[in-house]
Every structure is written in structure tokens, then in C-alpha cells.
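thread: overnight batch results

M.L. [08:02]
morning all. the overnight job finished for the chain we discussed friday. pasting input first so we're all looking at the same thing
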Amino acid sequence: MNQMKALVLSGGAGTRLRPITHTSAKQLVPVANKAVLFYGLESVAAAGVTEVGMIVGDTAAEIQDAVGDGSKFGLRVTYIPQERPLGLAHAVLIARDYLGDDDFVMYLGDNFVVGGITELVDGFRRNRPDAQILLTRVPDPRAFGVAELDPSGQVICLEEKPEHPKSDLALVGVYLFTPAIHDAVRAIEPSWRGELEITHAIQHLIDAHADVRSTVIRGYWKDTGNVVDMLEVNRTVLEGLDRRIDGTVDERSETIGRVVVEEGARVTNSRVVGPCVIGAGTVVSDSYVGPFTSVAENCRITHSELEFSIVLRDSSIDGVGRIESSLIGRHVQVTPAPNVPSAHRLVLGDHSKVQIHS
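M.L. [08:03]
and the structure it wrote out:
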């Protein structure tokens, strides 16, 4: 069987997740207290691919620190620096020496495919088309690469972020290629965005009558590039939780449903309703933590209510009433604002008339 590698993209600036990504790689923002990138690496390993080239940019040091040599995922990781995010096809271009003449799966490190990619990789290994893309139906395809298929399901056209999409089939961030792609990425010109688009490279293959196939996934896919999608993915992953209480929950507290309390975490005089996860070393006291919430390690939640949110490590929320649909970064302190006495302050000229609704 042909040797297969993975090319995992972990560069990019994460502009849509600012301000979190001013200080942290977007691929390392946690979902259910595990970095998005780690789910992708686990999917690659589960598909039987062990050699991974990882494209890294400005956040290279942080990614390398988190992933290491890949052995904890059962992988061998080689880092490939990309000086600027110049497009997905550019990533293939600079990985040419690493990839050699092997088939490979390209996986975008901030994408999330529920159910993994094993079936996809197995099918590709059996049939070996020149390229295989993953598609999913989306309500507004204008933000994505969009595929047009003929009646038999063959890909006839790809467009990058079209103003008038020809279908509702968006490209998911997982691609499978034979070495045929290398000539294609060398043949294309940068787009109006100044990037080498992978859609243009695949279109080049289509125009050359290469065998480009597609699979429409009915499962779940998200590009976790913004807060709304991040919270949605967090919700999806938490739905699959099994209840586990490794920390301590005192007798005045109540935990309902699929709640994970990690080792070293403490819940006192609080109500925790799953699915949710409370990270190691975190203390929840006199509070309510509601469904679809992930609180990372070493946080403090006191006299507060929290629901449908992600709280990153070493943060504290103290006495602030209710927080929901929120993404809170690392080392954040959320406290009540000081009470300001309600008073009207007036400087009025002669013969004024003022009506005050108090």
C-alpha cells in the first residue's frame, strides 16, 4: 500500500478570534478543555497516518510547545515554517521536499470534523483518485470555497469565496492528494488576495482531466475561526461526554447529568448541570455552572452563573451575576463594577426648564 503522510496547517493569524488570538494560536483554543488542533491530530493518527508535516507561522513556538515531537498522539511530527500565510497551495509548495512522492491528507488545524477521517482515508487508499475533496452543505457558501458537481457527482468547477455561488456545497478543510497536486500548485498564479489558492490548484487538475472526486459529509463540520462556531463545536463535543467525578464535590453541591470534574477540582455549595467540564485545579463555589460550558484548569468561579461558555485556564469570575455565550481568555479577571450612586449633575443657565425622569 502506498505510504501516506499528513500535512497539518497550523499557521494563520486567527483574526476572527481576536482578542484571544493576539496572545494565543487559534488552533490551541480549547474545545471541551482540549485544543482544537489535538482533535485533528487524533483523527489523523486514528486513520493510520503517522508521518505529519506541520506548517507553522508566527505562533510556531507555542504550537511546538503544545505538540512536541507528536509521540503523545502516536505521530512523528516535522515542523515546516511558512514565513507568511500565503495560501493553502503555498503550504503544499513549501512542503514539497517533506512530502516527496507520497500521497497525503491535508488537514486544516482549526477545522473540526466529528467522526474523524478514517473512512475517507481508507476510501482514498483503495481508489486513489488524483484528488479528493470533502464537501458539506452550508446556508451561505460565499465565505467558502464552493464546488459545482455534474449529475454524476463529478467535480466540474471550484470557486473561492464566490459572490454568486453555483451551489451550496462548501469545501471542508480536509483534502486528499496524490503527488499530481505538486505540478498543479506550481502552475497557478496568486489570486486577488495575493494567495496561492488550493481551489485553483484543484481546478487546474480538473481542467487537465485528472480524476477529482468529492464526498459530501452529512456529519458535522465546523471551521472554528470565530466565537459562535467555537461555542457550537464545544457544545457538540460536550454532548458526547460521559459523567466522571475525579475531583471533590461537597454535600451542599449538586451535579446533574454528564458532568466531568477533573482531578484536583473542587465544587462547593454550587449547582453544576451537564454536559459540562470543570478542569483540574479549578474551584467552583457558591455558583451555578450550566450546560455546554467548559472551564479550563486552575480557574475560580465564585458567586456567579455561567452557561454555554468557554473559560480558558487561570481565570477568575467573581460575583458577576450571569454570563452566557462567552469566550473568556487565559489569566482573565471578571469582577463587578463598583456601585456608582445614581445622581443627576446639572449646570443650568438662567430661566431653564428641566424635566427629569427619575
